[in-house]
Amino acid sequence: MHRLLHLEEAAGPTAVSTGQLPGAAAVEGLVRAAWERYAPVTDGKVADYIPVLAAARPDWFGLCVAAVDGTLHAAGEADRAFSIQSISKPFVFALVCQALGGGRARECIGVNATGLPFNSVMAIELNRDRTMNPMVNAGAIATTSLVPGRTHAEKWRFLLEGLSRFAGRDLAMDAAVYASEAATNQRNQGIARLLQGYGRMYCDPDEATDLYTRQCAVNVTARDLAVMGATLADGGVNPVTRDRVLDADRCQRVLAVMATAGLYEQSGDWLYEVGLPGKSGVAGGLVTIAPGKGGLGTFSPPLDEAGNSVRGQLATRFLSEQLGLNLFASAAGPG
Ligand SMILES: NC(=O)CC[C@H](N)C(=O)O
């Protein structure tokens, strides 16, 4: 299988992970360099299984790095709105862990990798946990079924307010994306029913699928993703608003499930090359967390076969190397 991250040579010497990001001018220059380096890439294919997503332009490309001190560095179309899609998964898992406790969330969902595509039914059949991991559809729909609230409206408010606190601004759902996916998400409806049959669905399966489809249709920008990622990097405190969205001990669990399955069946390749927890979405977004340092948000719609943004992965790998973010690089020692 074509492995995206092997497409080109590594960008250069890997900087060694240190306590913080380099100075603002250096980060600014590297974010611009990443944009210039990967803007000409034309590999990948825009998602079309959700019909409205097919209208995205392949040349859209935006990047943003948010440091834990709240400094932001952006390049290209960092303010273009797109639907968050699967990048909602870690943040909704975080909100559910905050409401129920990480232990209970783990019991109800599971935290192991499936090694299979994000919407795999085989993964449910083959594994005793069924739901497996909150980063794939089965685990994500089960996670959404745990959202507290007496009514659908209360649950939706919990989701939208929680995602907005991570971003530090009021987010809104894209009604056209929601309608397009709601009309074509029979597979996710099936997954929710299958989980119900296995006792791994914690509210009505149609309600859970509808709420999940709504959370995936929330609009964000690359800049929002960087701030949301920086909130996880900062132990649960949004570095721009200083709002504590999540307790630090829950934050570390969210990063663990992202590292395990954030890029689906290519999570191993990703961790091997980039060395950071990340999460992709089919609209072309990608969020990556450098714990204690900051968040990276990228947007570029063309995807590889696993549904991960091609330019997003390349630009993030470049920045991980150049900024010395790889969590495992410190094992090599300085110099
Ligand atoms: N990988 C993704 O971003 C998938 C999200 C999409 N809403 C789905 O469930 O199919």
From TrEMBL:
Listed Pfam families: Glutaminase
UniProt-listed Enzyme Commission number(s): 3.5.1.2
UniProtKB keywords: Acetylation, Hydrolase
A Gene Ontology molecular function term of the record: glutaminase activity
Gene3D superfamilies, per database record: DD-peptidase/beta-lactamase superfamily
Catalytic reaction(s) noted: L-glutamine + H2O = L-glutamate + NH4(+)
Subunit structure of this chain's protein: Homotetramer.
Family: Belongs to the glutaminase family.
PANTHER family xref list: GLUTAMINASE, GLUTAMINASE 1
Name of the protein described by the UniProt record: Glutaminase
Gene for this chain: glsA
